[in-house]
Specification:
Mean pLDDT: 91
Structural class: alpha/beta
Number of strands: 9
Low-confidence stretches: none
CATH topology of the largest domain: Rossmann fold
Number of helices: 10
Order of helices and strands: EHEHEHHEHEEHEHEEHHH
Number of domains: 3
CATH class of the largest domain: Alpha Beta
Strand order of the largest sheet: 5-6-9-7-8
Shape: globular
Strand content: 5-15%
Length: about 280
């Protein structure tokens, strides 16, 4: 809640597969949950004007272009200066918005963020972070796709960024930071991992290497890796979660007795499904 500290968030009304309806539903829910939230709704006039007129704390910002999900990221950002993604990033750059949300083209978001808003001093590469459910508190995994190839110093910067996110958003006072690797020993892994390990020793909260199995086990609050490895890990977890849930549903409906048990456990199972839906 931001009631004591109002926040203005720019939102891409036409980003994502189910836009604008799904986006507008989300904005409605966010406004109801947070009386300190103000929204700059960005998109074509016919998608944002009527909604803004019917909702307090929402202002329509016209954008005449849309970047499609299949367009080349950097090229589209440079060519479509009045796209909802570029306009949203410009609102942050100009200070009219505190942040920008889009469910649209991820590559275009990264490109526009870098080209329009710019990087924080000391950050050479932006990273995509995701919050994953674990056996304990959730953890932050980054990078999960922005940088397929990284240098050791990039991973050290990811660690600082991930720790800042864990502190401010997840409420972790002293985040434990792990480096995703194929073994716990600091001499394991690629040259990138070994060199990054040396740099990460200077980062407060670094606990050493963690393996893939440690991610759901809550071994660390922040886990850093290159974008290629992080994306593979994320997609594997998504696929395994879906497969296990599907098999569990089949098992629970395989007999009358199991079906009755499933009915009793329905609410708990739905909560479990929501929790592991990344």
């Amino acid at each position: 809640m931001t009631a004591g500290n109002p926040v203005t968030l720019a939102v891409d009304a036409v980003g994502g597969d189910f836009a604008p309806d799904a986006v507008l539903e989300g904005v409605t829910a966010a406004l109801a949950a947070d009386p300190g939230l103000n929204v700059l709704l960005v998109g074509p006039a016919d998608a944002v004007t009527s909604y803004a007129a019917a909702h307090e704390r929402v202002e329509a910002v016209s954008a005449t272009e849309v970047i499609g999900m299949d367009e080349h990221a950097a090229g589209a950002v440079r060519a479509k200066k009045d796209s909802s993604i570029v306009v949203g990033c410009r609102l942050v750059k100009e200070g009219r918005a505190d942040g920008f949300f889009s469910a649209g083209n991820t590559g275009a978001m990264m490109a526009a963020s870098t080209l329009v808003m710019g990087r924080i001093k000391g950050v050479q590469r932006p990273a995509i972070a995701t919050v994953l459910p674990t056996a304990g508190p959730p953890c932050v995994l980054l990078d999960v796709g922005a940088n397929a190839e990284c240098k050791p110093e990039h991973l050290a910067q990811f660690a600082h960024m991930g720790a800042a996110y864990a502190r401010t958003t997840l409420g972790v006072a002293e985040p434990r930071i792990g480096l995703l690797n194929i073994g716990e020993e600091e001499t394991k892994g690629s040259q990138l991992a070994q060199d990054a390990h040396v740099l990460l020793k200077a980062v407060p909260g670094f606990i050493g290497n963690v393996e893939g199995r440690d991610i759901p086990a809550a071994a660390a609050d922040v886990i850093v890796t290159d974008g290629f490895t992080g994306n593979v890990a994320l997609k594997l977890m998504e696929g395994m979660s879906k497969q296990l849930l599907d098999q569990f549903k089949v098992a629970m409906l395989s007999s009358p007795v199991n079906t009755i048990a499933a009915a009793v456990l329905k609410q708990s199972l739905e909560e479990l499904s929501d929790n592991i839906d990344t």
